[in-house]
Amino acid sequence: MKAHDALYIDGAWRPAESGDVIEVVNPADEQVIGKVPAGGALDIDTAVRAARAALPAWAATPPAERAARLAALHQALAARKDEIAGTVTAELGSPPKFSEAVHASVPLAVVASFAELAARHSFEEKVGNSTVLHEPIGVVGAITPWNYPLHQIVAKVAPALAAGCTIVLKPAEDTPLVAQLFAEAVHEAGVPAGVFNLVTGLGPVAGQALAEHPGVDLVSFTGSTAIGRQVAAVAGAAVKKVALELGGKSANVILPSADLARAVNVGVANVMSNSGQTCSAWTRMLVHRDQYAEAVELAATAAAKYGDRIGPVVSARQQARVRGYIEKGIAEGARLVAGGPEAPRERGYFVSPTVFADVTPEMTIAQEEIFGPVLTILRYEDEEDALRIANGTVYGLAGAVWAAEEAEAVAFARRMDTGQVDINGGRFNPLAPFGGYKQSGIGRELGSHGLAEYLQTKSLQF
């Protein structure tokens, strides 16, 4: 796509207040593929004012009409599916097949789910002698990351629209082009002017201005736990609601009764997917001591097959970060069985699919989110030891459990301190609530739980 040299505010493309721009770089070949405006505080203020002006009418719009706009948005995005996939491949470096199957397709399912939810959700209920109203919370400031650029936009904007909120979106500066495509689709879908606004810009400038703006009622942020703390602090000063989807260090627990080969192969694929840039990736594989050597061999063999199948990480900065963690793992005594810190190609921000064995729970690579194609394998003595290791980080976003009997896996999963657990390779469900325990966040996205984040409650007594 050709990048817009403007911001989408109040139903139209408008120039930014400053002439500053952000260069968008293809991480596969390091070539500049476009430029977008670097919006600032004045642009955020203009967008928030537009959203506030549009709020009363959109909040009063019948849910059936809001559902119709979401259905039209689904159609507009579907018509751009190929362009979306190509854009994500260009600005994120995702392999074309993965861009088509995941980056362009999953958001369509999510938008469709919220169109259906908006049409059937009950926005009021009777509780004794009270009528309880579920009303839109107001203006939403949405700050999204680069790893799943369209999905993360849709997971915030679609429920906000369904709830009757208006939105100002600040997308990640590394992947702003697909956000511009989304704005085009919103316009084509007939969403009223001011209901959705897009300001591209840098996080410390536009992102902070959005989080602290007094006209924003809810800040929804997805990204690192470190930045999430800053967003929460800024929003908390104004006592405004926050929804935070943050980091993860998810455990993939393989119980002794499981099909070891399948569990290991699926676990490796999970970590290598999207070049390891997935907050819910099962980056810690936990294996019983009696099966450990076999699991390590299986994982090393599986990882070697991904050398030419995964794309680069998003930027030179991210490449250096991931390689630094690999070097840290070696320095702390973990055993490298696949990959390593050396760049596998001369050009592009590629990282070799990497597997560490002999990892202990206190090692940095077992505690901190790496956000790259790096798997750590830890041994456990018994089930209680496995549970201690699985729950032994500050994170609690996702996880997996494998066992011969489903009931055995479920019993273990119930004891895990995490927001989502896949049982024996369970499939992604766009209607299930997504979010974390502990420092992995506050609130939930997707489905009815995701819609609830954008509603506030009023009771009328009779």
Q: Percentage of helical residues?
A: 40-55%
Q: Which secondary-structure class do the elements indicate?
A: alpha/beta
Q: How is the largest sheet built, in terms of strand order?
A: 14-15-16-13-12-17-18
Radius of gyration: 22 Å
**Low-confidence runs:** none
**Beta strand %:** 15-25%
Number of strands: 20
Task: Report the span from N to C terminus.
Answer: 56 Å
* Largest sheet, strands/sense/barrel: 7 strands, mixed
What's a quick, concise take on this entry?
With 462 residues, the chain is an alpha/beta fold.
Write up this protein.
This protein has 462 residues and is α/β, with parallel strands linked by helices. The protein contains 16 helices and 20 strands. The chain has helices at 41-60, 63-79, 81-92, 96-103, 106-120, 149-163, 177-188, 203-212, 225-237, 260-272, 292-304, 316-331, 364-367, 383-390, 406-413, 447-452, and strands at residues 7-9, 12-14, 21-26, 31-37, 124-127, 130-136, 139-143, 166-170, 196-198, 218-222, 241-245, 251-254, 284-288, 335-338, 354-357, 374-380, 399-402, 422-423, 441-442, 455-461. The strands form five sheets. A seven-stranded mixed beta sheet has the order 14-15-16-13-12-17-18, with helices on both faces. Strand 1 (7-9) and strand 2 (12-14) form a beta hairpin. Helix 1 crosses helix 8. The N and C termini lie far apart (56 Å). The mean pLDDT is 97. Keywords: Oxidoreductase. Belongs to the aldehyde dehydrogenase family.
